[in-house]
Amino acid sequence: MKLLDLFRKKEERKKLEGPAEARKKAPAPSSGAETETKNLGESEVASVVLQKPRVTEKSSKMSERGVYVFRVAGRSRKPEIKKAVEELYKVKVEKVNIVSVPFRLRRVGRKIGRRPGYKKASVRLVSGHKIEFI
Questions:
Q1: How far apart are the C-alpha atoms of 78 and 123, rounded to whole Å?
Q2: 11's torsion region: left (phi>0), alpha (psi -120 to 50) or beta?
Q3: Which residue has the higher pLDDT, 78 or 134?
Q4: What's the pTM?
């Protein structure tokens, strides 16, 4: 019976609120004092495309030559990755290479599972540009 009471309460609330136009709330007025600035790490495209930097011994040596490695979204393409790195780190990208790392079978006792695959991107920056990972 509790379930029926929930439906009744929903119907009562709808009647009290009135028509659909009345339910829509007006957006809050924004003051002129607030200015929107995009800081490092606040790019919308970059947060979807770039998942995280791959910090390994090999990628550390590559970064000395201006090549940085990132784990990226599975459906991202080279132009999207280039744009995301340029927006997020404020650098100029020269070249992007992509590698799809396949899944691997892993065994725990008698059970066989799969470690998921992923896509990684090697990004070469124009000489003179650098990315600092903390």
A1: 10
A2: alpha
A3: 78
A4: 0.66
Q: Which CATH architecture describes the domain 40-105+112-129?
A: 2-Layer Sandwich (3.30)
3-33 residues labelled b (16+ CB within 10 A) or e (exposed): eeeeeeeeeeeeeeeeeeeeeeeeeeeeeee
- Token code pair at residue 54: 């791959």
The domain spans of the chain are 40-105+112-129
- How far is it, in rounded angstroms, from Cα 20 to Cα 2? 27
Place of tokens 């929107």: 36
Q: Among 95, 97, 96, 101, which residue's Cα sits nearest to residue 119?
A: 101
Tokens at 93, concatenated = 């990208």
